[in-house]
Amino acid sequence: MVPALLPYPLILNILLIFPAQFNQEITRVVFDLYQKARYELFSLIEPDRVVIDIFKSGEESAITETLPAKPEEKPAPGPEITGKRVVIIDPGHGGKDPGAIGPTGLKEKEVTLGIALYLEKLLKGAGISTYLTRSKDEFVYLENRTSFANRKNGFIFVSLHANSVLNHRPSAQGIETFVLSSKYIGASARDVADRENIASRAHPELDTDLALIIADLEESANIKYSLDFAEIVQEKLV
């Protein structure tokens, strides 16, 4: 299953239809709209199918005209939307967790923090609201990093890591960009994620944090935006 980009004149108000496999039993279909719209959902038989009617602003359906009006339901209050995009920078490792150690003794936690502080300066200089999960050499559990990002209403979460080689190889260079997804992540990528995060988990024997993050990603269209952002990062840095 792949996302389908629809021409505007073909189906008004619908920008993208994106399938997401929530689990083995449930498949979700996400509709990205050009603007907020009213919709109606119902099922039909012969053949069995689910129908979703999405209406333009001001358009009414025949069903609505024949049914009594429902009491207006007030949505539960959510986080305040200010229109400002928040970037969360996550320097990998820290404190008792040094991460990878290079041939000269340089620690990954030092490299990631240095890059994070520099990136924070650049983004704030451009007027972008930016937060770091750690701003000094301290140990932060993975659960605390993710909860911090959620409290700050992060729009983009970027975790920084650095690799090392066993033998001194001055020619070694390059970057890797990973996107968290149970669908797209391979065995080698999963090994990297497990290796990078095992020390920072409050309960290493449990994999619930990773499972919850993946579930959250796959129940929405966030994975599409993550893939798009990863492609941009890869292109700009290579």
From TrEMBL:
GO MF terms held by the record: N-acetylmuramoyl-L-alanine amidase activity
Assigned GO CC terms: outer membrane-bounded periplasmic space
SUPFAM superfamilies in alphabetical order: Zn-dependent exopeptidases
Domain spans labelled MurNAc-LAA: 87-236
Pfam families reported for this sequence: Amidase_3
Keyword line: Hydrolase
Membrane-crossing residue ranges in chain numbering: none
GO BP: peptidoglycan catabolic process
Keyword match Transcription regulation: no
Record protein name field: MurNAc-LAA domain-containing protein
